[in-house]
Amino acid sequence: MKKKEIREIYDAAVLSVMPENLISNNSYLKSIKSDKIHLFGSGKAAFEMAKEIEKIFGENIIDGLIITPNEDKNLKRVEVFQSTHPNPSNKSIVAAKKMFEKFIALKEDDFFIYLLSGGSSALLELPREPISLDDFIKTTKILLENSVPIEEINIVRKHLSKIKGGQLGLQVKAKGVVLVISDVIGDDLEAIGSAVLFCDSSTFKDAKDILYKYKLYDKLPASVKDVLEKEICETPKSVNKNIEHIIIGNNKIALKKAKQKAENLGYSCTIVTNELQGDVKIVAKKIVDLILCSDQDVLLFGGECTVDVLGDGLGGRNQELCLRVLKLIKNHPNIIFLSGGSDGIDGNTRAAGAIVDSKSYQNDIDYFLQKSDSYNFLKRGDNLLVTGSSGTNVMDIMIAIKGVKNV
Predict the structure, then answer these.
(1) C-alpha triplet 275, 280, 282: angle, nearest 5°
(2) What is the pTM assigned to this prediction?
(3) 353 contact partners, CB below 8 Å, separation of at least 6
(4) Mean per-residue pLDDT of the chain
(5) Omega before 130 cis (within 30°)?
(6) Running DSSP on this structure, what letter comes out for residue 21?
(7) CATH number for the segment(s) 251-402
(8) Hey, where are the domains in the chain?
(9) Which residue of 144, 300, 348, 380 is 20 to 30 Å from 373, comparing CA positions?
């Protein structure tokens, strides 16, 4: 059993959902006949997607705007604007205003392609008055640090924003298609990128209910409470019929490729779920219980956990999951476990996640968990999974190898 092989399985999964593969294999694009295409996009994968679209349509692309978190990126036919992630900034506001201007200028006989992927919620932002950017950021931080699932975070953010939840779509007279790489459980189009061009069935009441459920309402800035209480301008509840949404990539695709790779390496393998979610402490126990009772060599999981941040250390949900799994497998030398973000980013670190086995265990593990400092625990050994930003995002991938190959 080798860390090299578990890394190969992870790499195969991520490669399968890279934009160059998803775009080149997409049959819908072959049906587009327009010779005047406006190309837009936002998210962690938007730039790489746009690069592939330029290869296909070339000079037929006449205009556009791509919002990306990446530095020093340029396209031949389209403006690229660097914004910020995971927290919005003044750049996010500039990006949102630029996107509004582009869409307002579209005419009824125009055609556009919008490339949407995870990360858009931070990259494009325009808070409702009187919410300041600082108050918006503070609210987002409160939600993220209190184990609120991303789908519920987005419900709140959509009702504090003038662009999310289909509000950009209200400006569109032209026909177009949104090509989506999903980073949410269930591929919910209302949740991916906070649905700038889709619609939103949630309400201001739903947003407040979420905040009360997690006992966070009283922690909010006054300006945020003011917007939530006044309930002015609800998000659109129906889809703009001129805009089609097509999911071209998701976690399921990545796990299928991971399974194929594991089997090619000689392992028996099963995909347990692509909808893993919940508090990292509970998820870790579920994963280990399944590993111990399974007759398969490799178990695959996809999804996203949530973490209660206890201290000011370095880490992310994948690294913390690895530490909590490690505590439970310290006496099982035949198990190796990987958890990594498909985007190559985990929390506030340079790592995508980690790879652990019983040799990774050290007696001070609880000290690092209490500080939310999984990164500094893991970096002491050869445990960190460092890939760099991948250019795609389909949630997290977890891989457990148990026993030996069937060879």
Answers:
(1) 85
(2) 0.92
(3) 316, 318, 319, 321, 322, 338, 339, 340, 341, 346, 385, 396
(4) 95
(5) yes
(6) H
(7) 3.40.1480.10
(8) 19-249, 251-402
(9) 300
